[in-house]
Design goal:
Layout: H1 3-15, H2 45-60, E1 65-67, E2 77-80, E3 90-101, E4 104-108, E5 118-122, E6 125-131, E7 137-143, H3 144-157, H4 168-186
Antiparallel strand pairs: 1-2, 2-3, 3-6, 4-5, 6-7
This protein binds ligand K1U and zinc ion.
C-alpha cells in the first residue's frame, strides 16, 4: 500500500470533484460485454478516480450496482450501493465466491439491458472474498439483495449477462425491443 499517494489522491478528490465523469454504459448485444475481466493489480490514484466515476455513473443511471466490464474497462472491479440515500457505497475488487447455499429466483434488471426485468435463479447465501480500494482482503457471508447483486455483477466480469439465463425466444424479443429503442433515439 502507498499511503502518501492515497493522501494525495484524497486531497485531489476533495479539491476537484468536477473531474468525476459520467461514463458510457455498454448495451446488449455489444460484444465487448462478453470480454472476461482481468484481475486488478495496481491500487493507485487512477483506480480510485475510476471508482468515483463508476459510482457517479451508477447513481445517474440510476442503478444499485455497476461492473467495470459495463463501462468497457475489463478488470475485476464492481461498485454497489443498495441504499436510497447513497450512504452505502461498497467496492469489490478481484471478488471470489467461496461457498454457495440455497437457490431462489428473483426479478433482476441490468443497466446494460435497459428497461428489461426478468427472473434469474441465484444462490441465496454466499461467502465471498474480495479486495477493497486499498487492496486489503475482506471476507464475509452475504445474503438477500447483496448476494444477488454480487452474483449478477460477477457474471458481468465473466462476460455473462442475466439475459443468458432466459430462453432464446425472450432474448430475440429483447434484442428487437432494444434495437427499436436505439433507432428511435438516434432518429
Ligand atoms: O449490473 C447492473 O446492470 C446494475 C443492476 C444491478 C442489479 C439489480 C437487480 C438485481 C440484480 C442486479 C441495476 O442496478 S438495475 C436497476 C435497479 O435495479 C434499480 C434502479 C434504481 C433503484 C433501484 C433499483
Ligand atoms: Zn447488469
Amino acid at each position: 500500500m502507498n499511503w502518501p499517494d492515497i493522501r494525495l489522491s484524497d486531497h485531489y478528490l476533495i479539491r476537484d470533484e468536477t473531474r468525476m465523469a459520467l461514463l458510457t454504459i455498454l448495451e446488449y448485444p455489444d460484444p465487448r460485454l462478453r470480454t472476461k475481466a482481468r484481475p486488478v493489480t495496481v491500487f493507485d490514484a487512477a483506480l480510485r478516480q475510476r471508482i468515483e466515476d463508476m459510482f457517479e455513473t451508477m447513481y445517474a443511471a440510476p442503478g444499485i450496482g455497476l461492473a467495470a466490464s459495463q463501462i468497457d474497462w475489463h478488470h475485476q472491479l464492481i461498485v454497489m450501493d443498495l441504499t436510497e440515500d447513497k450512504t452505502g457505497r461498497q467496492v469489490f475488487i478481484n471478488p471470489e465466491i467461496l461457498t454457495k447455499e440455497g437457490s431462489a429466483s428473483g426479478e433482476e434488471g441490468c443497466l446494460s439491458v435497459p428497461g428489461i426485468y426478468d427472473d434469474v435463479p441465484r444462490a441465496e447465501r454466499i461467502s465471498a472474498r474480495w479486495q477493497d480500494a486499498d487492496g486489503q482482503w475482506q471476507q464475509q457471508p452475504l445474503d438477500g439483495l447483496l448476494a444477488v447483486c454480487l452474483q449478477h455483477e460477477m457474471d458481468h466480469l465473466d462476460g455473462k449477462l442475466f439475459v443468458d439465463y432466459l430462453s432464446e425466444l425472450k432474448r430475440q424479443r429483447i434484442r428487437k425491443k432494444l434495437d427499436k429503442e436505439r433507432r428511435s433515439r438516434t432518429a
